[in-house]
Amino acid sequence: MKQNKWSSSWLGLALLMLVLLLAACGNNNSTAAGNNNVPPAAAATADSSADGTTASTTKIVSTKNGDIEIPVKPMRIVTDDYLGSLIALGVTPVGTPGLHLKNLYFAEALKGVEDIGDYGNVSLEKILALQPDLIITAENDPAKYDNLSKAAPTISVPYGDLKNAREELTYFGKLLGREQEAEAWLAAYEDRLAKAREQVDQAIPPEATFTIFEDVEKAVYVYGDNFGRGGQPIYQALGRKPPSGVAAEIMEKQYVELSKEMMTQYAGDYIILTSNSRTLEDYKKDPLWNTLDAVKNDRLYVWKEERSWYYDPIAVLSQTEELAAWLSQKQ
Questions:
Q1: What is the Cα–Cα distance from 304 to 168, expressed in whole angstroms?
Q2: DSSP string covering 162-222, please?
Q3: Residue 255 φ then ψ, to 5°
Q4: Which residue has the higher pLDDT, 52 or 35?
Q5: Which neighbouring-strand residues pair with 62?
Q6: How many other β-carbons are positioned within 10 Å of the β-carbon of residue 300?
Q7: Are 154 and 71 a contacting pair, CB within 8 Å?
Q8: Helices 165-175 and 313-327 sit at what angle, rounded to 10 degrees?
Q9: Which of 155, 203, 280, 303 is most deeply packed, by most CB within 10 A?
């Protein structure tokens, strides 16, 4: 009997020790799972893919401002420009300047997007509040760029670096990991532009010249092929040319301020004119404008800045088809 009692006590003690050991192991596992000492950067740069391999969640992009580490799949983008390219790729930013929110070519796609301030003078405070993981900008001012880069990784693509819709879509498709979306959109884009170009070529002689004007209060501006007001649709999409004597100047400078007396030097056979205050009938009655052959021969197209200012891929496509419809009636 004494031996059996001792054996039972020993067995009970062994069981108790086993329970304590298992509890200690459980505590150690919980501590490891909740360890807060893992560096955030290390945790953010890798993820497990479906096949069990480790995939990076960030990548390095080489820019004029150096190598920038950005998310492979950014989810909260703030952009002060190039908005049309993002929309074309199926990407909706969380914030953009108020001017872009008025873009009639894709206003429906911007519902719920936050206004980050005036175009060219955005609010850093508003941007910070949106907690972006990527900022896209055309800003080329070092001080402004530095401010933006404090809020999130910032990619600057200054004006003129991307010359047309194909360059824009290709660049941003690669940047955002949407190469297939870019190619699909561009295929449809090129097809529609080809149809518009054929429509115009059947109506307008190939030697006919075109000028892009903007009329403001005391001056007139003439534009090249990459500064809005219809330059991309006319000169790039439809393949038309400005008057030979001024072509090199306006294509190099992209915009030139003129006195109204200088207009005759730059006016082509057809004029695409931006004006916020005057109509086609106003120009037909104007003694100065009516000296131009394009006005006298009803080859003047007048539209407001809200339709001509934008030159993103979506706007260019719509503008090209609009101008092609007008030009096809001029044969």
A1: 25
A2: S-SHHHHHHHHHHHTT-HHHHHHHHHHHHHHHHHHHHHHHTTS-TT-BEEEEEE-SS-EEE
A3: -150, 145
A4: 52
A5: 67
A6: 21
A7: no
A8: 160
A9: 155
